[in-house]
Amino acid sequence: MSKQKETPSPLVASLFRAHPWHGVDIGEDAPEVVNSYIEMLPTDTIKYELDKASGLLRVDRPQKFSSMPPMLYGFIPRTYSGKASAEYCNKKTGRTDIVGDGDPIDICVLTERPILKSNILVPAVVIGGFRMIDNNEADDKIVAFLKGDMVYTEWEDIGDIPDVFVERLRHYFLTYKDIPGKEKHLAEITHIYNKEEAYEVIRRGRKDYDANFAELTQIFNKVAGKEGGIF
Q1: Name one GO molecular function term (predicted).
Q2: Cα 145 vs. chain centroid, distance in angstroms?
Q3: pLDDT at position 181 over 80
Q4: Mind giving me the DSSP string for 71-133?
Q5: I need a labelling partner for 165 at 20 to 30 A (CA). Which of 15, 54, 152, 181 fits?
Q6: What stretch of H or E contains 165?
Q7: What are phi and psi of 214, to 5 degrees?
Q8: CATH number, position 151
Q9: Does 226 fall in a domain?
């Protein structure tokens, strides 16, 4: 007789640290407001990145240039850039050769308050995004601000951000992977889009996640007491 697979109880699950990508809910108000896992701060001179297997934050590389991220930078849990994300990017650019980059959807979070540590979750209000293509891979960058930040709370869309700050974000994303002495990294930003398109990018990312991690979806729904529903 085969043994039936058992799902950990909520009590057992609470004894372990949640995986930042798979074990954290995107938020009940998504895609308008999303939980965001922060990997990097504006003061970081080291490129930090989530180790997908362990869920720990690891050093990817020292930054070769003096360029540092002008915002909190990380990703949206339980999203994935796959087939549905690539289809949307192809549709918007008129291309047919773009594929998903196989990572969670990236997000940059603006805030007036200094945040001095990464490896944290922050609630972020989505206002737009950058349609970035990195070596023929869809690599969207969602733009948001920290929920409750009184300086940015009146921003309703990316068009409310001063042009000089939008250009600063654009320049960073087009150059942060360049390495001195090597061929220039092939990346482009084809569009700067509003919050409605950003919502669709997030929805596609959630669809791709469900398609690629269906078993994890079922496990987390059971642990959270949401059996039969989608987190």
Answers
A1: magnesium ion binding
A2: 13
A3: no
A4: SEEEE-TT---SHHHHHHHHHHHT-S--EE-SSPPEEEEE-SS-----SEEEEEEEEEEEEEE
A5: 181
A6: helix 163-175
A7: -60, -40
A8: 3.90.80.10
A9: no
